[in-house]
Amino acid sequence: MRRAVIAFTAFLGGLIFLLAVPAQAAAPDQGLRGTLKLQGQPVNGVKIVVTTEGGQPVKEVTSNAQGAWEVPVDKPGKYKVTLDVKTLPPNAVIRGGNAVRTPTVFSGNVSTVLFALQPKGAAGQPTAEEGGETSPFLDQAAQLTFEGLNLGLIIALAALGLSLIYGTTGLTNFAHGELVTMGALLAYMFNVGFGLHLIPAAVIAVIAGGALGYLQDRLFWGQLRRRGTGTIAMMIISIGVALFLRYVFLILFGGQNESFAQYTAQPGIEIGPISAAPKNFVAMGIELAVLVIVGVALLRTRTGKAARAVADNPALAASSGINVDRVIRIIWTTGGAIAALAGIMLGLSQNLKYTMGQDILLLIFAGVTLGGLGTAFGALVGSLVVGLFIQVSTLWVPPELKSVGALAVLIIVLLFRPQGILGRRERIG
């Protein structure tokens, strides 16, 4: 068994090394890039001016239909990036008012430059024409709370599958972010590649994500469990699987940002101080419905009760007649389908790229850990807390540091309640 694990790890490492060579060759040398969005919608035609730190011009570009822009540079160093505010839409301003960034480009890397855009009414300017009756700060807080709920529900979908898999198998699956990416890329393939509308393409992608989750456990993780592979070894293997899949996505999809064919640019609708595209409201409704359905299934159905029994004590569940392998396989299928749906929802709110699952993996783990490891409802609560804190914290901290605050809250909560919000204390000894 130990030899099999060592051989598999060596084989996987060799594949990753072989794939890394062409992947690095296809990547750009160094440069600057960014994406401009206003309330989730890409902003086209905004001029970006890049100069050296000493003021020597490098290049001027404009954002494309996806709101993206990119400037390659000849050598690493510190650069000055200026957004021309005159080219912004009439209803948009830069959050904080600073239109200049001074990023550092390292050799062989592309640095991301962030310009957070927001509606003029939420920018904090005085509203004299309204007699001071409305507070721009409160309007901005309401808008960010809505965006935090939207992000939290997406994280909750992804965290739910991860928490269910951990609860039934004890596996901390670092490849779960790649399941999220896979769902988004499958939907993109059916939508753009095969010409299907996004809705049927998304349904097919979710079904395919569930099938891939089933096959993962049937052909791979289940085999390792039967060989008696420990959870630490399986966790390390999951890191290798994540790297392997990431490079496969890079080779097949490429390193560029893409978007779905439908629902990319929608005019915003206003509900009180909140302004958002219609797709955001529909997506949040779908996410809530899926979370409620899974929660009810865990509490009311025989399979859900069996899954909770396996999570509590697999040996006792097996002795009582429960087919543990079958339950775990159902959980993997459900987790893969939910992760695929999370990827599609994430792709609707931002551009698609091969690292999109990796980018939110830390937030997924934060939501699961904060809510309580192995608890489905804990993953929901923890993810909502993380999503809300990330967005609302930008009222006081720069957008570049918003994730740091969420992780600080995670550390503080776990210092006082190590089992998480809804987790249970474990008796040792």
Give a structural overview:
The protein is α+β, with helices and mostly antiparallel strands and 429 residues long. It has 2 domains: 34-124, Immunoglobulins (Immunoglobulin-like, Sandwich); 142-416, ABC transporter involved in vitamin B12 uptake, BtuC, CATH 1.10.3470. The chain is built from 12 helices and 14 strands. Strands 4, 5, 7, 9 and 10 form a 5-stranded antiparallel beta sheet that branches. The protein has a 3-stranded mixed beta sheet with strand order 6-1-11, with no helix packed on it. A hairpin with a 2-residue loop joins strand 2 (37-38) and strand 3. Helix 2 (136-169) packs across helix 7 (302-312), helix 2 packs across helix 10 (356-371) and helix 3 crosses helix 9 (324-349). 40% of the residues are buried.
